[in-house]
Amino acid sequence: MFVDVAKIYVKAGDGGHGAVSFRREKYVPFGGPDGGDGGKGGDVIFVVDKGLRTLLDFRYKKKYIAMSGENGGTNNKFGKDGEDLVIKVPPGTVIKDAETNRIIADLKDESDVAVVARGGRGGRGNTKFATPTRQAPNFAEPGMPGEERWIVLELKLLADVGLVGFPNVGKSTILSMVTGAKPKIANYHFTTLTPNLGVVDLPGVKSFVLADIPGIIEGAHEGAGLGIDFLRHIERTRVLIHVIDVSGIEGRDPIEDFYQINEELKLYNEKLSKKPQIVAANKMDIPGAEENFERLKAEMDKHGIKVFKISAATNQGLKELMQYVGQVLENVPYDEEPLGEFYIPEDKKFTYIIKRADDGAFEITGSFVDRLLLSVNIYDSESLKYFHKVLERKGIIEELKQMGIKDGDIVRMNDFEFEFVE
């Protein structure tokens, strides 16, 4: 089974919480703080594995979660960092953010690596909050949450040459004759339901990868037939072999076929119609093909396109065609043009919102509040002083004043309420 698109959920590990701990030594009755920091959460990392050819594994497993960092311990013991989650994908995999459809990474080579979700930072233990005036902090910092997102994986085959054309024109037969590939072949439309790859390795020809792309029909750029699902695989190729049935046995005109296929390529991506093309006039062994060939060749001469007489069924002309393709490839550079502007996910921002509740209280909500309250011990005066300083540094106190807060007004943060005092 060939799978070339998959949507999955990835989540990096959360950071471990910092510890609240104090030394309890036999002859040190008032030991200081010794709570250690939490460990960092593991990242979600994508790497290329040249042994993979499809995204099939991602059809059955949709969620990938990295390990969280361990919490800090006593005696200033740091929590262990969470292990990174390394996910292997085939070469040619494009990773997109599912929400924005923007490209995060384009993994083509074995050395390509992409960190798609970063692990959360570990929280600081109470040791880090000790100061000359705060010698026994009874609070610590929680770990930061790991990044999470839905992503779309798209596989674009990394072939040097693509065989394109209408269904049933002989592309699969050509592939089977010039490579070791054994595609399914039959005399009906859409025999090829998935792209097939093979390596052309002939005497006097520098080896190259040849892809048999499923047949294209009118409206393919809008999804007709096998459509867009497989047009994307042509984007990576350097040269196109346009296979045309010159026998006319199915009632189509070879010249019209050429223009119709090229129109579909252009409508999908104009860059495809500008790739070097070589026309393979197939089924020359069928009576009546010669007349159509002469017409086709005269038309292609107008565009400077080389035309080869071939018969995939009898192996006629295939060696000469592949030798010429090998020569053309030597002068066609690899396509290093980026697929678009790459999207680098930003670090998660902790935000808040202040609004007046129906009872007149000032309500503060948001991810910033959730995280701050995790680190506050409301029964400890030192912790409450730290809490107040954080609110000042964040600008919340000033914002409350601008909203008209007065002494005695209630401030509500989730389930925690306090009176405002200037």
From TrEMBL:
Q: Where does GTP bind?
A: 165-172, 190-194, 212-215, 282-285, 311-313
Per UniProt, subcellular location reads as: Cytoplasm
User: Per the record's keyword annotation, is Repeat included, yes or no?
Assistant: no
Location (main, coarse): cytoplasm
The cofactor(s) it depends on are: Mg(2+)
The segment(s) forming the Obg domain are 1-158
Q: Which GO terms describe its molecular function?
A: GTP binding; GTPase activity; magnesium ion binding
GO (cellular component) term, any one = cytoplasm
Domain OCT, by residue range, is: 342-422
Domain OBG-type G: start-end pairs: 159-330
Q: How does it assemble?
A: Monomer.
Q: Which family does it belong to?
A: Belongs to the TRAFAC class OBG-HflX-like GTPase superfamily. OBG GTPase family.
Its biological purpose: An essential GTPase which binds GTP, GDP and possibly (p)ppGpp with moderate affinity, with high nucleotide exchange rates and a fairly low GTP hydrolysis rate. Plays a role in control of the cell cycle, stress response, ribosome biogenesis and in those bacteria that undergo differentiation, in morphogenesis control.
Question: What is the protein named?
Answer: GTPase Obg
Taxonomy of the source species: Bacteria, Bacillati, Bacillota, Clostridia, Eubacteriales
